[in-house]
């Protein structure tokens, strides 16, 4: 596999917002790691799955959390049938196989993860495994992709410059209304008229980010609402359970959102 993109229907469905597929492919060819920045549910994970398939690479995805340590990524000795055996973690597996490793919400991970990522994301491209004494050299197929959501206002959880400046970075936003319409119809099977109305509602709700809401409604939630409607749920109820309830716990904000939706839905 020489990094040529495979066209065709085998890859998970993904509608590009711009030139991100070309940037991903170019970074893969150049053996550079890639950082995806953007809000939750805007298509980052789908994009990586799509690109991995088009590049003919296996994909190992890790959802990072605040207890995720370097050992979780690299591997550990485990007791199996009375014997102690070494078991590779997802990052080590990806390096050995020449696969793509996707670290979703990388800022959540513990600090020792950055120490592991540094020699792997600069021109050394090595993964030292202290416990086994191995030092793996990443081949041309391997690529590290990480994502984070700059919108989460947590000053303690941000990437250090020495980490972020090891990545080529792409910024994602919510798709344009036309693009989102295609995504929502394709993902849910809902008709265009009702999908268009959902997207207008989403646009209005996104406008409230920073006032009443921390985060705008994601494309994922619009797809949820559309899927529920396509399967028979009433429009208003689907909007309530998929596009309002998940956004906030505050009763008066919810009421305000419901009024706004009612005005739009007529
Ligand atoms: N451009 C797109 N093409 C196809 N589907 C999309 C696109 N953008 C969003 N989606 C839809 O939105 C859903 C959520 O996207 P995805 O899981 O990739 O979000 P994410 O940005 O990775 O979120 P998180 O940061 O929370 O993991 C997908 O399952 C898909 O249905």
UniProtKB/TrEMBL annotation:
Residue span(s) of domain ATPase dynein-related AAA:
33-167
Q: Name one GO molecular function term.
A: ATP binding
Give a yes or no for keyword Membrane in this entry: no
* InterPro entries (UniProt xref): ATPase_dyneun-rel_AAA, CbbQ/NirQ/NorQ/GpvN, CbbQ_C, P-loop_NTPase
Give the CbbQ/NirQ/NorQ C-terminal domain ranges. Answer: 180-263
Q: In terms of domain of life, where is this protein from?
A: Bacteria
Query: What keywords are assigned to this protein?
Result: ATP-binding, Nucleotide-binding
Asked if the record carries the keyword ATP-binding, the reply is yes
Family stated for the protein in its record:
Belongs to the CbbQ/NirQ/NorQ/GpvN family.
Family matches, as PANTHER family: DENITRIFICATION REGULATORY PROTEIN NIRQ (PTHR42759:SF7), MOXR FAMILY PROTEIN (PTHR42759)
Question: Which protein are we looking at?
Answer: CbbQ/NirQ/NorQ/GpvN family protein
């Amino acid at each position: 596999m020489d990094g040529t993109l495979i066209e065709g229907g085998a890859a998970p469905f993904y509608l590009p917002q711009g030139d991100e597929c070309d940037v991903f492919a170019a970074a893969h060819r150049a053996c550079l790691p890639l950082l995806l920045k953007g809000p939750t549910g805007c298509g980052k994970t789908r994009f990586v799955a799509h690109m991995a398939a088009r590049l003919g690479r296996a994909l190992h995805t890790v959802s990072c959390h605040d207890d995720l340590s370097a050992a979780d990524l690299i591997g550990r000795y485990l007791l199996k049938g009375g014997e102690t055996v070494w078991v590779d973690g997802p990052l080590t597996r990806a390096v050995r196989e020449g696969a793509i490793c996707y670290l979703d919400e990388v800022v959540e991970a513990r600090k020792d993860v950055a120490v592991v990522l540094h020699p792997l994301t600069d021109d050394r491209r090595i993964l030292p495994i202290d416990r086994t004494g191995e030092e793996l050299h990443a081949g041309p197929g391997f690529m590290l992709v990480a994502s984070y959501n700059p919108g989460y206002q947590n000053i303690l959880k941000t990437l250090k410059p020495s980490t972020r400046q090891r990545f080529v970075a792409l910024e994602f936003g919510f798709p344009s209304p036309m693009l989102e319409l295609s995504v929502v119809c394709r993902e849910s099977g809902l008709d265009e008229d009702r999908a268009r109305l959902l997207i207008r509602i989403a646009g209005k709700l996104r406008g409230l980010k920073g006032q009443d809401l921390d985060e705008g409604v994601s494309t994922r939630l619009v797809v949820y609402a559309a899927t529920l409607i396509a399967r028979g749920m009433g429009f208003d109820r689907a909007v309530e359970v998929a596009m309002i309830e998940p956004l906030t716990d505050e009763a008066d904000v919810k009421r305000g959102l419901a009024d706004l939706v009612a005005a739009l839905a007529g």
